[in-house]
Specification:
By secondary structure, this protein is mainly alpha-helical. The chain contains nine helices and no strands. It is elongated.
Length: 154
């Protein structure tokens, strides 16, 4: 048996929708997250991408990163690696650690030294998976000089 709808959830959704329609980028992003996860609304990846896209266009780094992942996966939008890369780059320019990390991972094979720099930047921003990647880079010598002590520190 499905749970009864909570009236306060409907009120919260209505308020969020009104703010999003007024152009509040954080509300647009939150509404996109709700549609992506099905939290309080029927899950709809196209609707999620539309609202996240509005917030991304207004410069919200978290929305730019999420939109990049949607384009990379083809979730609610056509799969397009070039568009995904462009949105990742915009988020990374604003210091979004996960975007910086993902760009670094994308460049590892072709430009290991450049990739290491991006992984290091994300690691210094506190992203645990980037810290692990930097440690692994020091252990293997990929993109940076092999350094066991640095590998252990990271």
């Amino acid at each position: 048996m499905a749970p009864k709808p909570n009236p306060s959830d409907k009120r919260k959704h209505r308020e969020l929708l009104n703010s999003a329609r007024m152009g509040v980028r954080e509300a647009q992003y939150e509404l996109g997250l709700a549609y992506a996860s099905g939290a309080g609304v029927k899950q709809d990846f196209k609707e999620a991408a539309a609202w996240v896209g509005k917030a991304a266009d207004k410069g919200l780094a978290a929305a730019q990163y999420l939109l990049a992942t949607q384009y990379a996966a083809g979730s609610g939008v056509p799969r397009d690696d070039l568009v995904a890369h462009a949105w990742l780059s915009k988020a990374a320019e604003q210091g979004h650690a996960k975007a910086i990390f993902r760009l670094g991972r994308m460049q590892e094979a072709a430009q290991p030294r450049l990739a290491y720099g991006q992984l290091l930047k994300a690691a210094e921003l506190g992203l645990a998976e980037a810290q692990l990647a930097v440690g692994q880079a020091h252990a293997s010598g990929r993109g940076v000089e092999r350094d066991a002590a640095a590998a252990l520190r990271w």
